[in-house]
Specification:
The complex is a heterodimer.
Chain A: E1 7-10, E2 19-25, H1 29-36, E3 37-39, E4 51-58, E5 65-74, E6 85-91, H2 94-106, E7 110-111, H3 116-123, H4 129-151, H5 158-181, H6 192-221, E8 223-228, H7 235-243, E9 261-267, E10 270-276, H8 286-301, E11 304-310, H9 317-325, E12 331-336, H10 346-351, E13 358-359, H11 368-380, H12 393-414, H13 419-437, H14 443-452
Helix pairs in contact in A: 3-4, 5-6, 5-13, 5-14, 6-12, 12-13
Chain B: E1 2-11, H1 15-26, E2 31-35, E3 49-51, H2 55-64, H3 69-76, E4 77-83, E5 93-98, H4 100-112, E6 117-121, E7 124-130, E8 133-139, E9 144-152, E10 161-164, E11 167-170, H5 181-189, E12 193-200, E13 203-205, E14 215-217, E15 240-244, H6 247-256, H7 278-284, E16 292-297, E17 304-308, H8 316-324, E18 334-336, E19 339-346, E20 363-365, H9 375-393, H10 407-418, H11 443-454, H12 459-481, H13 488-496, H14 508-512, H15 519-522, H16 534-545, H17 547-564, H18 582-591, H19 596-601, H20 607-622
Helix pairs in contact in B: 1-9, 2-9, 2-11, 3-4, 6-8, 11-12, 12-16
Classes of the chains: A alpha/beta, B alpha+beta.
Chain lengths: 457, 623
């Protein structure tokens, strides 16, 4: 429903481009802009509305400059949404854009749901219903296109898919309703077990679609992978090698990487944020303790962990401690420095339950392509990429509701309860599906009964 | 000529007119019922039966509210059957064949003996309106009657046109004149008048039917009455018989199809899909090898038989050939030909939920004039129109039954919110979202108190239903609190009922939750419940057995009531609301829904439009 907070999102598709736009809409938009935007020439007065301003986006705490940008402020009501709108036109690197967005979010904005800007435009009377629906379609297409650019596939669209599911469901429901309202007719109605089979099949399709949400989310938000390992196993080298440039300082002294360094790479269309971390080890150094704390936090938030071991050293208690701390995560083990003579005993790893490991050498650029492939598979977790993916949390909730109703329907069918109860569950499921595509209709059922069956006297 | 002034004038003595007249006069209003033919009061134009799926529900509700139909059919019914007995309680429906002549007599007697009610034969040709308010009516011969409220229940009589083959003639129904002027009068007043079609079967001479090889269908024994106040049925019961059309029948129909007024294009109006003619069935479902025909006697004292399923408007010679091709009917004589009838109706979106027209204050429409089909649908509307006409005379708010309260509510809400969509409307259980809560068996619990409040249900009926509510609650508690332990004989009995043995202590309520156990079975385990009446037991059983589902429906009802409670001002200027599409604005302006819930049900109004309305209303409240 309509909330009166401030939303922000990247308005341009994910992927690389010359320019990206981050759009902010709501009562806090101007305040957030002033907090992070410094105009060139040091001017400090009130930002003029509907004017392009040139300046930089800075992290307020550190003063670090993130990018040179063009910023516009459009004070309400003459803006897209009818609220105060700020747009930041920055360079189009996905990592950079993400950082700017996150900065904005950290200053008090909420990530917008797809289409939410247009929804606000509609609710504020800036667009009429027909226009809004048109724009929403377009946006959906843009997001899907954005996804397609990142994924290299996905045709069809969610609506059509759900529309088909709804058709399947209606077929079942019509059978049940016809049996109820026309008992005296000699209708060839499906037996209970046939109905159950059809319902089961439908439930499976919905489950698949729900499962695609995680997949879709990874593509929308990007996956997060943490590189973990004891100091000096070569994490930073590995990161450099994967990214392809020297971004991180690599020295021999353990403990050099104090902060968490993040880089973004593209694994076959999947945006992945790689976090290098401070080597985890017991230490008395305060700064290092803080780094270690952040590391653990990042590991907890990661979608997967790349655990790096030094193949030229024996398996140490620190290695063991690290691996044990990763028990709940998706882990890929990379044994680095395989260009040197191996002294790591593999049996230690199999002993801990890790059967598959990778031999790599960051320095010699060996095994890295394979590593990337494995990492992608580990993250996505599916063999076959789904044809359609959910990206909207509300849609997911609606589908979960439909799925739960179908579960109930199956239970009801198996308990031989009368058809009017099955109908309740099936109608609930239908409503769940319809919530996604925005259709509510009670008339369809009767129409279908009469098209299909010769009933009535 | 000017005669008396009445409180309420009812035009028409069909099923809607009867309920309207009785309701108004019983509520104390001075009522006049005008009919074209006093001998045809309560005539069943088509099927000699009351009830059925969805329809039976309406009749029970009419009874609970204090209407007449259920009692009349109990007096005159010749075959009673419960339908869907193998299915759940929400879809079990009562149906009864009527002795048509007896039914008419019964209704006429009741009307003639009703205080405050005057009956008059006359054909109303003109509505008298002044200053946007109904004043009275004028008949064919110039008689004028003044009435403070006028209820039109004209059935199929407005410019009725009967078609048999390529011949047609003006009639309201076979054997009755049509009414010509009234729909012109309505048109002039600004009403949108449309045209619909329905049809009926030929009547056969029972003496010429060979029943020997046909399957007989008997009614229930004992027959179960419709009315909550009827103890038992005393009429002699008569069975129906079943036969089928065959490929030869279909051939005859197909080769003559061009001579059917529907297919030749003479009739352009739409007929009800739920009452298709036999030619419709044969054309649309060409692969079906046979269609079922129920041979229903029209009364104990007549030889006329109604072949249910054989509705047709084919020429008479085709009808004869068609009938004679059917098993058992090889020598059957047609006493009255089947026919199609076209008639004017007034699109019901022009009504408020009280059934008062939006255009003319004090004018109500009920029954087939609103585009419905079926005696029960008509009677339900007549009852509500009668009640609301009188309530408005007293300056009171009309009684509007919500969709979660009664099928009558579903019916009227569908009519005034969605309209007929060019096709006659018939009730089905699938139209009710809260089907599980709107059962035949609990109609009295739902509506008797309302019927009593308006003055139609008797005090006794009210007392009985209130008492029943209490006793049901008590019974459920007793069943939940009962204890039953596993014992050899208990488990043996369970097994004999096809149920699993008990492993630990349980309660009777727990047993009742098993699908295979019904209330009457419980008596085997707890003889102290033997005295409980079947209807009480059924109530308890349904609530216990299906409590999960009932809960869910109740939650749905809560959400529904919230959005229903948001009233829309009658003078809301939809054109001024920014953000609504032109189409949505037009629809809302046309229908003028009373609540946000009703607005949501108008076809073409999207959830987004409702959000917008909701936001707009909130802003208005704050301003």
């Amino acid at each position: 429903m309509y909330q009166e907070d401030t939303i922000a999102a990247v308005a341009t598709p994910m992927g690389e481009g010359g320019v990206a736009i981050v759009r902010v809409s709501g009562p806090d938009a101007e305040r957030i802009a002033r907090a992070i935007f410094a105009r060139s020439g040091g001017r400090n007065g009130r930002l003029r509305t509907h004017t392009l301003h040139y300046g930089t986006i800075c992290e307020p705490k550190t003063g670090e400059v993130l990018d040179e940008v063009l910023l516009t402020l459009m004070r309400k009501p003459r803006s897209y949404t009818g609220e105060d709108v700020v747009e930041v036109h920055c360079h189009g690197g996905p990592f950079l854009v993400r950082r700017i967005l996150e900065l904005i979010l950290s200053r008090g904005a909420r990530h917008a749901e797809p289409g939410e800007f247009t929804k606000r435009a509609f609710l504020n009377g800036r667009l009429d219903l027909a226009q809004a629906e048109g724009v929403l379609d377009l946006i959906r297409a843009r997001t899907e296109k954005g996804m397609r650019l990142a994924l290299g596939q996905v045709r069809g669209g969610l609506s059509r898919w759900i529309g088909e599911l709804r058709e399947d469901l209606l077929e079942i429901l019509v059978q049940v309703e016809a049996a109820i309202d026309f008992p005296e007719e000699e209708i060839e109605l499906l037996q209970r077990d046939q109905l159950a089979a059809k319902t089961e099949a439908l439930r499976g399709k919905i489950a698949e679609l729900i499962g695609s949400y995680e997949w879709g989310r990874l593509f929308r938000d990007g996956a997060r992978v943490c590189i973990a390992g004891k100091p000096n196993v070569g994490k930073s080298s590995l990161l450099n090698a994967l990214v392809g440039e020297e971004r991180v300082i690599v020295t021999e002294v353990p403990g050099t990487t104090r902060d968490v360094v993040e880089e973004s790479i593209n694994l076959g269309g999947l945006p992945v944020a790689l976090w290098d971390t401070a080597g985890i080890r017991r230490t008395d150094d305060q700064v290092e303790k803080i780094s270690v704390h952040f590391t653990r936090k990042r590991i907890a938030e990661a979608d997967a962990v790349l655990a790096v071991l030094d193949g030229s050293c024996p398996f140490s208690p620190e290695d063991r401690a690290i691996l044990e701390s990763l028990k709940e995560k998706k882990v890929l083990i990379a044994i680095n420095k395989s260009d040197l003579s191996p002294r790591l005993d593999m049996r230690e790893l199999t002993g801990l339950g890790y059967k598959e490991t990778m031999l790599i050498s960051a320095k010699e650029d060996f095994g890295l392509d394979h590593l990337k492939q494995e990492l992608r598979s580990l993250l996505l977790g599916v063999e076959i990429e789904p044809q359609v993916a959910l990206t909207n949390l509300r849609h997911k909730a609606a589908l979960e509701r439909a799925q739960a109703s179908l579960n109930e329907a199956l239970k009801t069918l198996s308990r031989s309860l009368p058809p009017e109860f099955v109908a309740v569950d099936l109608r609930d499921a239908k409503e769940g599906l319809e919530e996604v595509i925005g259709v509510i209709s009670n008339d369809d059922i009767l129409k279908r009964i009469f098209d299909q069956f010769c009933v009535g006297k | 000529m000017i005669y008396n002034t009445y409180d309420v004038i009812v035009v028409g003595a069909g099923h809607a007119g009867i309920e309207a007249s009785l309701a108004a006069s019983r509520m104390g209003a001075k009522t006049l019922m005008l009919t074209l033919n006093l001998d045809h009061i309560g005539q069943m134009s088509c099927n000699p039966a009351i009830g059925g799926i969805g329809k039976g529900h309406l009749v029970k509700e009419i009874d609970a509210l204090g209407g007449e139909m259920a009692r009349a059919i109990d007096e005159t019914g010749i075959q009673f059957r419960m339908l869907n007995t193998k299915k759940g309680p929400a879809v079990r429906a009562s149906r009864a064949q009527a002795d048509k002549a007896l039914y008419r007599q019964q209704m006429k007697r009741v009307l003639e003996n009703c205080p405050n009610l005057a009956l008059r034969q006359g054909s109303v040709e003109r509505l008298l309106v002044e200053g946007g308010e109904a004043k009275g009516v004028e008949t064919q011969i110039g008689e004028i009657f003044y009435g403070r409220r006028v209820i039109l229940t004209t059935g199929t009589f407005l410019k009725g046109l009967i078609h048999v083959g390529d011949r047609n003639y003006s009639a309201g129904r076979a054997g009755d004149f049509a009414v010509q002027g009234l729909s012109d009068s309505l048109n002039e007043l600004g009403f949108k008048v449309g045209r619909l079609k329905t049809g009926t079967c030929p009547r056969l001479d029972g003496r010429t039917i060979d029943y020997a090889r046909l399957q007989a269908q008997y009614g229930d024994d004992p027959p179960i009455p419709f009315s909550f106040s009827t103890e038992k049925i005393s009429q002699r019961q008569i069975p129906c018989h079943i036969t089928y059309t065959n490929s030869r029948t279909h051939e005859i129909i197909k080769s003559a199809i061009h001579r059917s007024p529907m297919y030749s294009g003479i009739i352009k109006s739409r007929g009800p899909r739920y009452c298709p003619s036999i030619e419709d069935k044969v054309v649309r479902f060409a692969d079906k090898e046979r269609h079922q025909i129920f041979l229903e006697p029209e009364g104990a004292d007549t030889v006329e038989v109604y072949p249910n399923g054989l509705s047709t408007s084919l020429p008479l010679d085709v009808q004869i050939e068609m009938v004679r091709s059917i098993q058992g009917l090889e020598r059957a004589e047609i006493m009255r030909p089947g026919y199609a009838i076209e008639y004017d109706y007034v699109e019901p979106t022009q009504l408020y939920p009280s059934l008062e027209t939006k255009l003319i204050k004090g004018l109500y429409h009920a029954g087939q004039i609103n585009g419905t089909t079926g005696y029960e649908e008509a009677a339900a509307q007549g009852l509500m129109a009668g009640i609301n006409a009188v309530l408005s005379l007293r300056g009171k708010e009309p009684t509007i039954l919500a969709r979660d309260k009664a099928y009558i509510g579903v019916l009227i809400d569908d009519l005034v919110t969605k309209g007929t969509d060019g096709e006659p409307y018939r009730m089905f259980t699938s139209r009710a979202e809260y089907r599980l809560l709107l059962r035949e068996d609990n109609a009295d619990l739902r509506l008797t108190d309302l019927g009593y409040k308006v003055g139609l249900a008797t005090e006794e009926a009210y007392r009985l239903s209130e008492d029943k509510k209490g006793r049901v609650a008590g019974l459920i508690e007793a069943l939940e609190n009962s204890r039953i332990n596993p014992a050899l004989e208990i488990n043996a009995r369970l097994e004999s009922l096809g149920s699993a043995p008990l492993r630990g202590q349980s309660s009777l309520a727990q047993l009742l939750r098993r699908p295979e156990i019904s209330f009457s079975d419980l008596v085997l385990f707890a003889p102290e419940f033997a005295g409980v009446s079947a209807s009480l037991g059924l109530q308890a059983e349904v609530e216990i057995k299906y409590s999960g589902y009932v809960q869910r429906q109740m939650e749905g009802v809560k959400r529904f009531r919230k959005i229903e409670a948001v009233r829309l001002p009658a003078d809301l200027d939809y054109m001024a609301i920014a953000g609504l599409s032109h189409e949505v604005r037009e629809k809302l302006t046309l229908i003028r829904p009373c609540t946000l819930g009703q607005a949501a049900r108008i076809s073409g109004i999207t959830p987004a439009a409702i959000s917008l309305l909701s936001v707009y209303l909130k802003k208005q409240m704050v301003a």
